[in-house]
Amino acid sequence: MDWDNMRAFLAVARQGQFLGASRILKVNQATVARRVTALEADLRATLFERSTTGVSLTEAGRDLLVRAERMESEMLQAEAELRKQDVQLNGVVRIGAPDGFTTYFLISALKGLMDRHPGIEIQLVPMPLAVSLARREVDIAITIEEPAAGRFVARKLTDYGVGIYGSTDYLDAFGRPQTSDDLCNHRRIGYVETYAYSSALSYVSEVFAGHPSTFDCASAVGQVEAVRAGLGLGVLHHFIAATLPGIEPVLPERMSRRSYWLVIHEDVRSLGRIRATVDHIVGEVMKRRAIFLGSGS
């Protein structure tokens, strides 16, 4: 059985479409379709139901997926063993992380890793789009909750704090709140609750002392930019606010604390490029831990 055909099957099963699989495998869509068709011919089974919007696994496809992922796990373990002596790390590392963490910390933090290991190719995927380590959609996930179950290795990366912030221009124009009751006299920037993919995101009302938001945005980056634009007061991560000129804390006692977790699948933990990336991210977070907690500058 041709392993390239099996890799194509895995990619299509995970992406739900041939086009998405072709992007992952870095081959054209026709090649992916040809490999899947060849695999179906070898097995004398239909693996996917095709439609205009994508594909779905048949019963035979679901049965094969379990076995194919076992095969993939063995291949990954073999790669880890064979490359133990390699000093040059190569290959793709795909990281899924929340947009605020990615934009305001991770991108700049990865520079040292890429300088040391130019053969590593980093791919960043916004959460919650990359939600499945089990299906190998990402190699490393930065999450805001510890995974409940699965063949994962998880460690708490750091606690982080959030608090109320406003732009200096906005505060000069509308005043600086002195008490929680003063918040009702200000526009308040929050999160679109229907897009909250985790209960850990439900801190805006808590920090705003129960006052509802008046402008909502479904991304941390959008909330940051709304505060910078002077639309109102927002609940921002301390480590993000620390990087922004012209942003001031408001009512610093009104804050909440959450945690970031770093999670990898057991099958990739031994790969050199994964270990190097994990160690680098952990080290960079530890260097700036005070800023994550709001006690640094």
What is the N-to-C succession of helices and strands? Answer: HHHEEHEHHEEEHEHEHEHEHH
Low-confidence stretches: none
Any idea what the radius of gyration is?
A: 23 Å
The H-level CATH homologous superfamily of the largest domain, spelled out, is Periplasmic binding protein-like II
**Which CATH class of the largest domain?**
Alpha Beta
What is the strand content?
A: 15-25%
Alpha-carbon distance between the two ends? 57 Å
Give the biggest beta sheet: 8 strands, mixed
Return the CATH topology of the largest domain: D-Maltodextrin-Binding Protein, domain 2
Portion of residues within helices: 40-55%
Overall shape: elongated
Structural class: alpha/beta
If classified by CATH, what would the architecture of the largest domain be?
A: 3-Layer(aba) Sandwich
Structure description:
This protein is an alpha/beta fold and about 300 residues long. The chain has 3 domains: about 5-80, Orthogonal Bundle (Arc Repressor Mutant, subunit A), CATH 1.10.10.10; about 90-160 and about 260-290, 3-Layer(aba) Sandwich (D-Maltodextrin-Binding Protein, domain 2), CATH 3.40.190; about 160-260, Periplasmic binding protein-like II (D-Maltodextrin-Binding Protein, domain 2), CATH 3.40.190. The chain has 12 helices and 10 strands. It has helices at about 5-15, 20-25, 30-45, 60-80, 100-110, 110-115, 170-175, 205, 220-230, 240, 270-285, 290-295, and strands at about 50, 55, 90-95, 120-125, 140-145, 150-165, 190, 215, 235, 245-265. Strands 4-3-5-10-6-9-7-8 form an 8-stranded mixed β-sheet, sandwiched between helices. Helix 8 links the parallel strand 7 (about 190) and strand 8 (about 215). Helix 1 (about 5-15) packs across helix 3 (about 30-45) and helix 1 packs across helix 4 (about 60-80). It is elongated and about 70 Å long. The protein starts with a helix and ends with a helix. The mean pLDDT is about 90.
